[in-house]
Amino acid sequence: MTDIPGPGRRTFVAGGVATALSLGPAALHPPAAAAASPDLVLDLPAPTGPHAVGAEVRHLVDRTRNDPWAPEIGVRELIVTVLRPARPSGRHPRMPQLTPEAAVWFGRLAHLIHHPYLPAAGVDWAATLTHARTGAAPLPGRRPTLLYSPGGGDSRTTGSVLATELASHGWTVVLVDHPGDAGQVEFPDVRPGRPDRVRITALRPDMDAATFRTLIGTRVADLRFVLDALRLENVGLYGHSAGGTAVAQALHEDRRVAAAANLEGYLDGLDGELLPVARQRPGRPLLLAGTDGFRDARFDRSWSALLAHGGPAARRELAHANHWAFTDYAALAPQLHRAGLMTAGQRTGMVGTVHPRAAARLVRSFFARHLPV
């Protein structure tokens, strides 16, 4: 069994697909040419909280920044999904995890970018529904807000289970996509410099330390812009992998962040230089959450450097787990295994055998202490 790539040791765009990606979506055939949907439909677990959840997608434009991955656009665009506790209503449709067009690109790219254990065919990725309902009326009152930054190469939609779980327990949750970094991001329309509604990743196998710094710096700026655009204060951040790195650094840079949960993101660069957040005592609560299946010397070095300063930081580890146990793959990989589309070793290499809700319990417990509803 080959080792699944991880952050800092992964190939973001593998093999010959890198050349095709550099030419844009048309180089991989337009979505209209997709084959008929296969049979397997994957399910996401329902949230356990007392509230129904409503969802809204927003397109945010930062006109003070250019896009580092596509400067021809001239601005920095983001897509976010806002999840809120809502009034119960079966009239409103459940939000799909992926729209039909985004699902086409996910199916073509995910196993090439950094999920080699995902099947190249045999799954209807557009059929998976979240348990958040579009158009559902939010409950009245102000609630603490949490922002999510996904892993490098992943889109915000792979964090749907955890986000819906948190919203069902009373938090407002904002899932943030980082276009150009994420595997695929769908916009409501085209614009000058961006002729396609779907942007696919611009990352390449030869990513160097400078590119990684740009990736993390862009994500931190994205998160801070969302705080500006939505006029948020006293928020929590959580992120997976590169997203975990970004939220830890954002906690360091922005006083509006009251607490952050880094879900298995390194605190150094590809050159080994510690990030600023790891060089001094954190002033606000920071969770460093890892897995026993993905722990390595780089985590121990960079996380221990931060913890050595003392302060409100803690390290926790999920047993019998692997890197993507913090994402929707914790629920999806076992279904792929049962369907014969993933081996037992591949499932273990991706998420381990941990209970799919283990990560949600850990994150919810952290924010219940430090940013209670």
Automatic annotation (TrEMBL):
Domain AB hydrolase-1, chain residue ranges per copy: 145-270
Key words, A-Z: Hydrolase, Lipid degradation, Lipid metabolism
Domain of life from the UniProt record: Bacteria
Pfam family of the protein (one): Abhydrolase_1
Keyword Chaperone among UniProt keywords: no
One function term, GO molecular function aspect: hydrolase activity
InterPro entries from the UniProt entry: AB_hydrolase_1, AB_hydrolase_fold, TAT_signal
Keyword Lipid metabolism: yes
Gene3D superfamilies, per the entry: alpha/beta hydrolase
Name of the protein this chain belongs to: Alpha/beta fold hydrolase
Species name: Streptomyces cremeus
